[in-house]
Amino acid sequence: MFRHVHRICSSLHSAPYSTRHAPSALAARTASVPLAVRERREKQLGLTPGPGETDATPDGLSPSDLARYKRHKALGTLPKSEDGKVQSPKEWIQRRDARRSRIRGFRTIRRTVPTKEDPDVTKTVQEVDVVGQPVYLPNIIFRLVRNHTPEGQDYNPFEATFRVPPSVTKTDIRSYLFAVYGVKTTYIRTDLYYGRSKPRGLSNRKMRSTYKRAVVGLVHPFYYPHRMEDMPQEERDKREDFIEQQYFVKEAHKMFAQNRFRSAATSARGDESKQWKFDEGSVKGRGKILKEVARRRQLKEQMVADLVGQWQKTRMEGKTMNVEFPRNRKPKKEVEANA
After folding, report:
1. 3-state DSSP helix/strand/coil % of the chain, to nearest 5
2. Which portions of the sequence form the region Disordered (predicted)?
């Protein structure tokens, strides 16, 4: 599992991180905004971007970023640039993106140490210190799934959707993707999906475990592999052969069907299950089973009719009949035929 996720995630990045947003990336970010936020922006700002359009400014600021920039500017809390002037929206968003994409878990500290030439003379040096506790070989699974694409809309290549454990935070997701796969993200949106449970007696049987869905914004586009239904027939056959060679899907389905058939037959036979052996050529499938049941019923009725005719003939001749009980271990009984 880890090998395949690493192979897929390794293709998510192909160039160094940049704070420059392509128009298609801004449109993808606008399309991924939650419905409640889109409704609030439409009501307050009158913004109704269509498919493929963006509500960002020419500098790449979303309406929320622009409102945050104006608020800091009114409060006088905006940092100043090198020339002493207040940062422009473009400089502010670049600084914000650079801070968000920094390597987490480290901090730069300044220390005073003596020089090698003269121990009495000191100098100030910068050192990188690890914050918190490093985690080696984390036992969490990031499952890459296909993005949700409404019908009639194009696939969003600037997003990647993961299924992660509920305890993983956005900071953990950003740090994990960068530290393990080298993937840098622009934004992360998460939502929690609770597992469904089906009542069964006095207890509940859980059908699906709870998981968290993380929608991650990407700097460079990534196209998820085509679905089997969307592939041409030649590529689809190659894909099926590759999957069968790697994972033996058909063989696993066959073994599962045999085990299910064996367990059903064993439970139906009861005490005779120890003497019963599974036949590889057994009939499977609803239609074939019904056809086999009808054939065996006809044979049974014919056998009963022949046996009754034989008994009647024996009774007419006044001979003694021996009646056997095949499913009983009782001794044979001799029944005198009544003329």
Report:
1. 40, 20, 40
2. 42-94
